[in-house]
Each structure stands twice: as C-alpha cells, then as structure tokens.
Amino acid sequence: MEYAIVIEKANETWSAHAPDLPGCIATGETIEEVKNNMRTAIEWHIEALRESGEDVPEPTVQVAVVAIPAPKAA
Q1: What's the CA gap between 57 and 32, in Å, rounded?
Q2: CB count, 10 Å around CB of 18?
Q3: How confident is the model over 19-32, as pLDDT tens digits?
Q4: Which domains, from first to last, does the chain contain?
Q5: Spatial distance between the Cα atoms of 19 and 42, rounded to a whole number of angstroms
Q6: How would you write 4-59 as a 3-class SS string?
Q7: Within a 10 A sphere around the Cβ of 45, how many other Cβ atoms?
Q8: Residues with Cβ < 8 Å from 18, sequence gap 6 or more?
Q9: CA atoms within 13 A on the CB side of 10
Q10: Under DSSP, is residue 3 helix (H, G, I), strand (E, B) or coil?
C-alpha cells in the first residue's frame, strides 16, 4: 500500500502526517528523516489498528500541485 503524507517545515525541524490515518504523525531533522520516520509510524499505526480489531483504512487521498501566477508587486 502507498499512503500520501504531508510534510511541513516546523521551525528547525520537519513534521509529517498521513491524512488517511488520523493521528499518525512523525517528525525529523531533515525531509529524508521525516519520510523514514513516517514509514515506521505508518507501519506501527497499521499494526496497532489490526491488534485492536479495527479496520485499516484504504489509501484514498490524492495529491496534486496547482500552479498559480506570482502575485504582482504593490
């Protein structure tokens, strides 16, 4: 399975979450570290869902980038 993650700059570190898996979050010093930490967090999150008898959500989030014109200077 492939889950979309959202990565955001948080002061001097990075944070990430998986919209399809509420509560599944991770942080890291670099983008690469936060990606690796999210991979582990997703695996643990899914394992915890299964152990508690809950359904594992299917990935449904779609990610896209939308280009807009640069704002004009005032």
Answers
A1: 25
A2: 21
A3: 999 999 999 999 99
A4: 1-74 (3.30.160.250)
A5: 11
A6: CCEEEEECCEEEEECCCCCCCEEEECCHHHHHHHHHHHHHHHHHHHHHCCCCCCCC
A7: 20
A8: 3, 4, 5, 6, 24, 38, 41, 42, 45
A9: 15
A10: coil
Give the position of tokens 């010093």.
29
pLDDT number for residue 41 = 99
Question: What would the pLDDT profile of 35-70 be if each residue is shown by its tens digit?
Answer: 999 999 999 999 999 999 999 999 999 999 999 999
Report the distance separating Cα 24 and Cα 61, nearest Å: 14
pLDDT of residue 3: 97
pLDDT of residue 74 exceeding 80: no
